[in-house]
Amino acid sequence: MNIQQTSLHLGELATGHALTAPLFCIEPSKEPRFVPETQGGVDVSPAPSVYIQANVHGAEVQGNAVIYQLLKLLESYQVLGKIVLAPLANPLGINQKSGEFTLGRFDPITGVNWNREYLDHQFDIEAWYLAHQHLSEVELISAFKARLTESCDERLNNSWGISTGHRLAVTLQKMAHQADIVLDLHTGPKSCKHLYAPEYDKQAARFFSIPYTLVIPNEFGGAMDEAAFCPWWCLAEAAKAQGREFSSDSGVAISAFTLELASQERIDLADAKQDALGILAYLSHRGVIAEKVAPADMPRFGCYLKDYRKLHAPQSGMVEYCAELGQPLAAGEPLAQLLRVERYGREDALTSVSLPVDCVPILHFASASVHQGTELYKVMTNVFEL
Length: 386
Ligand SMILES: [Zn+2]
Description:
Elements: E1 3-12, E2 18-26, E3 50-54, H1 62-74, E4 83-86, H2 91-94, E5 97-98, E6 101-102, H3 125-132, H4 137-156, H5 164-176, E7 181-188, E8 190-191, E9 194-198, E10 212-216, H6 224-241, E11 255-263, H7 269-285, E12 301-304, E13 308-312, E14 317-321, E15 334-339, E16 350-354, E17 360-364, E18 369-370, E19 375-380, E20 384-385
Parallel strand pairs: 3-4, 3-7, 7-11, 9-10, 10-12
Antiparallel strand pairs: 1-2, 2-4, 5-6, 8-17, 9-11, 12-20, 13-19, 14-15, 14-18, 15-16, 17-19
This protein binds zinc ion.
């Protein structure tokens, strides 16, 4: 297998140093596939191409280990579609240390969440489709990718400049727009594994080694997965309005997911291999590799984003997190205990925090002390089997 390593230029630091990230590219071992004569076709689209990035939030390092394990595994597979891997994708965030901790969730210059900096393409997709509907599906997909890339270039090169963080994000986004499958590897603070999947593509969740899936609406909120799939969902809608459907299983040409690979500030190479195998199972299903890789045999559950609820600390204090992440919890059972030691001797020195509904706690705040109102837990409610 041919792995090329290059460097992605993401901007310049005040000192004049280039801000760069490593980039691995695996070219397919075969030219685009051809269907046999008996099936009547000459040329079908090549195997899907893939873009995988990790560590856009500075403390969420486990995705780098997953990319490492994926590279090692791919050495023994026949790769049919181009795969681009961008670990350490946000060097500014990764290097933003304070004492023992990596801050890295918000751009220190603007305060904006690094995963809300992506570009919302504002051009009229319906009009674009009407002007290009005469194209074959393969040509249409290629032309639309070029249009999205051009839109990123316009933003990067506009006369008024753009912020440091937005430049980094749009540069990554431009890479993502070249691909048919986009995976953004994150983690929660203290978290069990979960996946964000767009509603039209939720069936893909049964391939990854991830027990919980958040089914998200087809709307742009600034994150990479949405930046990658929303324009394509709009394109599919515009085509559908003219009576045309794309041939992919989901009806949308591009797939994009955010994988939340447990907790931040954690590298676990054995666990990373399990997640790399889950990614391989999905890539195998999509025909990116020639070999069959079966998904892990495990139960998988989901909930809609509207049922993914935040619990804010009702009061301040020191926190004992009691509920186990990824384990169903009955209504009224304690999620956490808040300790107010200065109230020693009073009944309210210890307060138990619970919810009035059944839930599955997915993640909790990383620190053991909270202000009143801190986002203490995020839980899934109205959970269903996928
Ligand atoms: Zn993240």
